[in-house]
Write a structure and sequence with these properties.
The chain is mainly alpha-helical. The chain is built from 35 helices and no strands.
Length: 831
């Protein structure tokens, strides 16, 4: 039963007119604010009248009368019924439920990867209290990923009405009109009510029809609920895990939420103020943080294709999440330790090889105890191998496909081979085995490439330079084939010409005639090397004056190789590098995803958790009921890994100090060289010692199972009080400033989460590339237009010739017809 005639009229189907509804409202305007037994106002009932809204005329009638009801009761739009729905929200909730209910659950599609390991890799960044629910699969209909989603006309009408209300709502008229602040609060209240509908935003993203989806995504209510952290759900990770349309749509969501502006927050009809910008950034950062809280987000990026990773990682939201994951003190400390360890490891290997006479010796570098550096090389080499094994084990548990794609990537292969070659070479040397010179040379090159592999994930410029090399080599692969053919062909021509001309006299070897030696040798490779030397400038015309034929061949080759092919190579390299500069953000984004996955996963694995019993190390065993062996084993493993890292850093610290002392005591050749070496060693020691402080704190927290902060910048400036003591204040300040300096100067993290610097966009490269492409397109268009005009003129001329011929034939036929009857009459008269 309805409490008023207005309620009953709003529940009627299509047998009522707009005039009748308005007359009822005029006769009893207070009925608009009366709720029935279910807590529904007439506006609720009208917005849920499916029979009326399924017709186009009914939607027009309901839309017109809904504004009358809102004018009669402005606060009715925020009134919730007993089910918790405001007007227009019930149809949205029902649509979401119906679409999910009609979707078949496929567990194989829902959980193709090991989510337990994904959860353990990246705990929530906001702490255990705000962490998302467990990621184990539950048969929840809202976890399903529907396909072929179509929005009903009534649902689309509800979203259009909510957008109109959001844009025009000002409260009561005249003196009771809401202030600007109250209007913005009402907008926020309305958006949060709609954002609380589970998986609504997910279904909007999955709408099949592009026009309908684009129209709905442009509605103000949809763009406003995107700025509500309540709209963020686990569907983001679920859609990323499912290939095809769902994955592309969630990446589109990342781009959309990254491109929202303050006008989406306050409405397009208002002028933003300073407070509006602050509130907008706060809301947007809250959404970014809510998305970043999902443990599986960064690891899930590992299963995406290269193009998808590039698209996702260059959005502001993912950029901020990645920066936040690698700017934590532990991650930066581990990265700096790895850098210092690798530099010292590489230098120690270089000097050990030289000191043992395998390569050129250095008189200024002689170890008094060569076994100590050798043990260091073996220890640090085993440390790097251990780190790689841990990463491979974690990736294998996620997915074999992820492990294969990671293992067979070029830079990861370089990391493995460099360490294995270095440890194997030093072991062979001290076991008195003969090590080929090429092995030591290749090992040194691999160690330098390992350093390059580290640098490619640091900042955009380095990533552009390093990753562009791969693209350049890919683009010139066919040019190299042609260049090789030209070199081999010319070398064979010279070889045959010298052997065959003048009875072979041109191959009479003379002392110092290296050209003749190379081209007349039975080893063809020497001739090829000589020809390549000519292409890079090692040439002399006198070497080819033996005959006119050789001189001609020489001129032809130098013109073809030095002028034509070299300029073609320069053009290809320039074009490829410009493309890499345009795509620098994408290349760096892909490198930073891998960088964050490698380093942040180690921190997540070693971070103390509240799972298990909060006990002190071996105290976990003193349990009257059951000792927590599993928890103890995990704690022992974490402590061992941290101790291993700490030991490697401390040993490196001692070794650097020892080498600096030995170099000073041995009498350096020059004072400036000593000061340069001392300065560089001081920088390495500063970086290493600050990182050691962070690792010690992390180790203490692991043993004590505590989340307290002792030295790192997680403690804010307000937390650093005089009661902490001078030593702790100074150490906290040093560590905090060190972490901030490394984050800004090395990693380029200068802004808060979700922002990207304009300086990071390489506009010169973009403009050059755009100018070149535009010029090419214009030239191509001019050629096409010229060809089309020429073809048209040719067709017109042919058509004109054919037309003239046809007209001539018609005239001749007409003349013949005229002359024939006259000739007949003449003959008849003569008879």
């Amino acid at each position: 039963l309805h409490p008023t005639f207005l309620h009953a009229a709003c529940a009627a189907s299509n047998d009522i007119s707009l005039d009748e509804l308005r007359s009822l409202l005029l006769s009893s305007p207070e009925a608009a604010s009366i709720a029935d037994s279910d807590g529904r106002l007439p506006l609720h009932i009208l917005s849920e009248n499916k029979e009326l809204l399924n017709l186009r005329a009914g939607r027009e009638l309901a839309g017109a009368f809904a504004w009358d009801l809102i004018a009669a009761c402005p606060e009715g739009i925020f009134k919730k019924d007993k089910t918790g729905c405001i007007p227009f929200a019930a149809l949205l909730r029902q649509w979401v439920h119906d679409v999910h209910e009609s979707t078949a659950v496929k567990p194989s599609e829902m959980e193709p990867y090991n989510l337990s390991i994904l959860s353990s890799l990246f705990p929530s960044q906001s702490g255990p209290n705000n962490a998302p629910p467990p990621t184990t699969y539950i048969d929840d209909i809202f976890r399903r990923i529907p396909s072929d989603v179509h929005i009903t006309p009534a649902t689309e009408w509800s979203l259009n009405m909510l957008s109109a209300v959001l844009n025009t709502y000002r409260g009561a008229q005249k003196k009771d009109r809401l202030s600007r602040r109250e209007q913005l609060l009402r907008r926020e209240q309305l958006a949060k009510n709609i954002a609380s509908i589970p998986s609504l935003l997910k279904l909007i993203l999955l709408i099949e029809d592009d026009d309908s989806r684009d129209h709905i995504m442009d509605l103000s209510i949809v763009r406003r609920i995107i700025l509500c952290k309540g709209s963020v759900g686990r569907w983001i990770v679920d859609m990323l895990r499912k290939s095809g349309i769902p994955r592309r749509r969630v990446i589109d969501y990342f781009a959309l939420v990254s491109n929202l502006t303050v006008f989406d927050f306050i409405g397009k009809g208002r002028t933003p103020r300073q407070a509006d910008f602050a509130a907008f950034y706060e809301e947007r950062n809250a959404v970014y943080t809510a998305v970043g809280n999902f443990k599986e987000l960064i690891p899930t990026l590992a299963i995406l294709s290269y193009k998808e990773v590039e698209r996702a990682s260059t959005t502001k939201i993912m950029w901020g999440i990645l920066n936040d994951s690698i700017s934590r003190p532990f991650v930066i400390s581990i990265v700096m330790i790895d850098l210092v360890l690798h530099l010292v490891f590489m230098a120690t290997f270089r000097f050990l090889v030289a000191d043992h006479g395998v390569a050129n010796s250095y008189d200024w570098m002689e170890f008094n105890e060569p076994i100590v550096p050798a043990i260091y090389v073996a220890f640090i080499g085993s440390y790097f191998i251990f780190r790689l094994l841990v990463q491979f084990a974690l990736l294998m548990r996620i997915s074999r496909r992820v492990f294969r794609s990671y293992f067979f990537e070029f830079w990861n292969v370089v990391d493995i081979l460099s360490v294995c070659f270095a440890v194997g070479s030093m072991s062979s040397i001290y076991l008195k085995y003969t090590v080929p010179a090429w092995t030591l040379s290749v090992t040194m090159v691999l160690l330098w490439l390992k350093l390059v592999s580290f640098l490619k994930g640091v900042n955009t410029q380095l990533a552009t330079f390093i990753l562009a090399i791969g693209h350049i080599l890919k683009d010139i692969r066919w040019f190299l084939v042609v260049m090789g053919i030209v070199i081999v062909a010319f070398s064979d021509m010279i070889h045959i010409a010298k052997l065959s001309s003048e009875g072979g006299n041109l191959c009479n070897f003379s002392e110092g005639d290296t050209i003749t030696d190379d081209y007349c040798s039975i080893n063809f490779f020497e001739g090829y090397i000589r020809t390549y030397a000519i292409t890079v400038g090692f040439l002399d015309l006198d070497d080819f004056r033996d005959s006119t034929y050789l001189s001609i061949v020489f001129v032809v080759f130098t013109f073809l190789a030095l002028i034509v092919l070299v300029n073609v190579l320069i053009a290809i390299v320039s074009d490829s590098y410009e493309k890499s500069r345009v795509k620098s953000a994408y290349l760096f984004g892909r490198a930073r995803v891998q960088f964050a996955l490698e380093n942040a996963s180690l921190e997540a694995f070693l971070r103390p958790t509240r799972q298990g019993r909060n006990c002190f190390f071996l105290g976990c065993l003193w349990n009257w009921h059951q000792p927590d062996w599993r928890y103890l084993l995990i704690k022992v493993i974490r402590t061992f890994v941290l101790s291993y890292i700490l030991a490697a850093a401390v040993i490196t610290d001692v070794l650097v100090v020892r080498h600096l002392r030995d170099y000073g005591e041995s009498g350096p050749e020059s004072i400036p060289s000593f000061f340069v070496l001392a300065f560089l060693s001081g920088i390495l020691l500063l970086i290493l010692n600050v990182a050691i402080i962070v690792i010690i704190e992390f180790l203490i927290k692991t043993i004590l199972n505590s989340d307290a902060h002792f030295f790192t910048l997680r403690a804010s400036d307000d937390d650093i009080t005089a009661r902490q003591g001078k030593l702790r204040r100074y150490s906290t300040f040093i560590v905090r400033e060190f972490i901030r300096f490394i984050s800004e100067k090395v990693f380029g993290i200068k802004h808060s989460i979700g922002s990207m610097s304009e300086d990071e966009e390489d506009w010169p490269g973009r403009l050059n590339y755009i100018e070149k492409i535009t010029t090419h397109i214009v030239a191509e268009s001019e050629r096409n237009v010229s060809a089309a005009l020429t073809a048209s003129e040719t067709r017109l001329m042919k058509h004109e010739s054919a037309l003239q011929l046809e007209v001539r034939r018609d005239i001749e036929k007409y003349i013949n017809k005229i002359e024939r009857p006259s000739s007949i009459r003449f003959n008849s008269n003569s008879r």
